[in-house]
Automatic annotation (TrEMBL), chain A:
This is D-methionine transport system permease protein. PANTHER family: ABC TRANSPORTER PERMEASE, D-METHIONINE TRANSPORT SYSTEM PERMEASE PROTEIN METI-RELATED. Pfam families: BPD_transp_1 (PF00528). Residues 13-205 form the ABC transmembrane type-1 domain. The chain crosses the membrane at residues 16-40, 52-76, 82-105, 142-167, 187-207. It comes from Rhizobium herbae.
Automatic annotation (TrEMBL), chain B:
The keyword Membrane applies. PROSITE patterns: ABC_TRANSPORTER_1, ABC_TRANSPORTER_2. It holds the Pfam family ABC_tran. It comes from Rhizobium herbae. GO terms for molecular function: ATP binding. Keywords: Amino-acid transport, ATP-binding, Cell membrane, Membrane, Nucleotide-binding, Translocase, Transport. InterPro entries: AAA+_ATPase, ABC_transporter-like_ATP-bd, ABC_transporter-like_CS, ACT-like_dom_sf, MetN_ABC, MetN_ABC_transporter-like, NIL_domain, P-loop_NTPase. Belongs to the ABC transporter superfamily. This is D-methionine transport system ATP-binding protein. CDD domains: ABC_MetN_methionine_transporter. Residues 19-254 form the ABC transporter domain.
Length: 217, 358
């Protein structure tokens, strides 16, 4: 592989990391509260509100059912509004984050829902309010699942970021498509795949270790 | 109702009531879980509520701190009516009531001391003060060395001790125990019950516990209320209910720990006639303290044979239950024996005639 190709590979790796990390953090910050809202407003939740729950559920399902490549294009006006341009790495972060947020919200919802009702009762019986229940019970008790779900989301984002090449965002997936696939440069393809495997394994390994450390059950 | 009840109610008048329920009803769909429950718990006493699963006891205890709302009736806690209060209004009130659970319900992500300190955190106490109080309570329940441990590393009995420490940390006026020993082995159950009794004596804490095990009631409670199909069917001091259970459900719940006529004898009893009449003899309190059988054999020699039975001591009161066989060769003898026993304050019941005894 030529030094130019190597440089391209590193630049693409950086773009992938940037897109994944930025959209991942946004999906965590927005998706966790959304997941919490889905749980607490749901049936038997601590702030049961069926209409709000249905509304949030429909919204999440709506965004999750649109294929990412279509979302990418459909969100161009919004992206332009936020980032100022519809092209490049930063522009890709907007649709990636918007796709990952409802995805992560559902994963967080599952973990939060699995928290033993008895624990919520115990804190209610102590005189705790809803906020106490969220802070002392729901989030800490579901934390291993919340972290494991975030790991899954990051890995999914790496895959999705390959499609962001369509709007000139770059990244490893884009490199593999343009050089490895369209120009038949097998070496580049293999190199990209190896880098992606290492990246995904690294994230998964780190996520698993963190979960093991957090899990006191 | 039990004859001992009225006496004790009169004796208890003027004592402060921590809990009082009047005609509390609660239904789930078409099935009533509580069907008009009236009950009082007095300051410093341990009241045991016993019933089969599904009898409504869990619903009852959860109504007392508003985890469950009653449909109608009144629930007074320390004189304040809590029915119809909103979740927000209930919160300060719940801090006066500690609760322990069958499955302990400890927060797995928090250490033992953090669990114990949580009610104080909710109260708004500073961290240093919280941990100081948590240390005191862990000392009380004998788990000082586990303060930094996580609940998952504890045994069931230790978890329940932490649960008790946590329930007591905010100095409640009342402790609710929701089947607190049902998930524990017999030995651990005894140690947890001893701890509850000890706390009741030391701190004068009022305790209301629900259970399906008579043994639990027997060993710690002062009074017992039997609940069946959402109603209190029997209520009284534990020793008197054990001595003279009136409701069928009470008799059935007591089956395991009260002497019963051995199966092989009851199976061959004839209702009409036989060489021996089998009687059950129940005595409790002062009546059970005399030399009853010695006197009987002196008054009516060779008038009976002991088949089975024993004397238990509940709340420092003897509770005796015996089964005797009276020969029927002399047809007047059974009647004389019964009259003698009844005159001495025993409750006598003819169970039948043993045809096979030689």
């Amino acid at each position: 592989m030529t030094p130019i190709m190597l440089e391209l590979l590193f630049r693409s790796l950086w773009e992938t990391i940037l897109m994944t990390a930025a959209s991942g953090i946004i999906s965590l910050v927005a998706g966790l509260p959304l997941g919490l809202a889905l749980v607490v407003t749901g049936r038997g939740g601590i702030a049961e509100k069926p209409w709000l729950n249905s509304l949030l559920g429909a919204l999440v399902n709506g965004f999750r059912s649109v294929p990412f490549i279509i979302l990418l294009v459909a969100l161009i006006p919004l992206t332009r509004l936020i980032v100022g341009t519809a092209l490049g790495t930063w522009a890709a972060i907007v649709p990636l984050a918007i796709a990952a947020t409802p995805y992560y919200a559902r994963i967080a919802e599952v973990s939060l829902r699995e928290v033993d009702r008895g624990l919520i009762d115990a804190v209610r019986a102590m005189g705790g309010n809803r906020w106490t229940i969220i802070r002392e019970v729901l989030v800490p008790e579901a934390l291993p699942g919340i972290v494991a779900g975030f790991t899954v989301t990051l890995v999914t984002l790496i895959g999705a970021s390959a499609m962001a090449g369509a709007i000139g965002a770059g990244g490893l997936g884009d490199l593999a498509i343009r050089y490895g696939y369209q120009r038949f440069e097998t070496t580049v393809m293999i190199a990209v795949v190896i880098v992606l495997i290492i990246l995904v394994c690294g994230i998964q390994w780190f996520g698993d270790r963190l979960v093991a450390k957090l899990d006191r059950r | 109702m039990n004859s001992f009840v009225s006496a004790s109610t009169i004796a208890g008048e003027g004592l402060e009531e921590v809990v009082s329920l009047a005609n509390v009803k609660r239904r789930f769909g078409a099935t009533p879980a509580l069907d008009g429950v009236s009950l009082t718990v007095r300051k410093g006493e341990i009241l045991g509520i016993i019933g089969r699963s599904g009898a409504g006891k869990s619903t009852l205890i959860r109504c007392l701190n508003g985890l469950e709302q009653a449909d109608s009736g009144e629930i007074h806690i320390e004189g304040r009516n809590i029915t119809g209060l909103t979740e927000k209004e209930l919160q300060p009130l719940r801090r006066r009531i500690g609760m322990i659970f069958q499955h302990f319900n400890l927060l797995s992500a928090k250490t033992v001391e953090e669990n114990v300190a949580l009610p104080l955190k909710i109260e708004g106490l500073g961290k240093a003060e919280r941990l100081k109080r948590a240390a005191e309570l862990l000392d009380l329940v004998g788990l000082s060395d586990k303060a930094k441990a996580y609940p998952s590393s504890l045994s069931g009995g230790q978890k329940q001790r932490v649960g008790i420490a946590r329930a007591l940390s905010a100095r409640p006026a009342l402790l609710l125990s929701d089947e607190a020993t049902s998930a524990l082995d017999p030995e651990t159950t005894r140690s947890i019950l001893a701890l509850l009794k000890d706390i009741n004596r030391k701190l004068g804490l009022t305790i209301l516990l629900i259970t399906h095990e008579m043994e639990v009631v027997r060993s710690v409670a002062d009074r017992v209320a039997v609940i069946d199909a959402g109603r209190i069917v029997e209520e009284g001091p534990v020793w008197s209910v054990f001595a003279d259970p009136r409701a069928a459900i009470t008799q059935s719940l007591l089956g395991g720990i009260r002497p019963q006529l051995p199966e092989y004898i009851s199976a061959r009893l004839s209702p009409i006639s036989g060489p021996e009449q089998i009687l059950s003899v129940d005595m409790a309190g002062p009546a059970a303290q005399g030399a009853l059988f010695a006197d009987l054999s002196q008054a009516l020699p060779h008038s009976f044979r002991l088949v089975h039975g024993g004397i238990d001591h509940i709340q420092d009161q003897p509770v005796a239950r015996f089964f005797i066989a009276v020969p029927t060769r002399d047809s007047t003898l059974p009647e004389k024996v019964q009259q003698f026993l009844k005159a001495r304050g025993a409750r006598v019941e003819v169970l039948g005639y043993d045809a096979d005894h030689a």
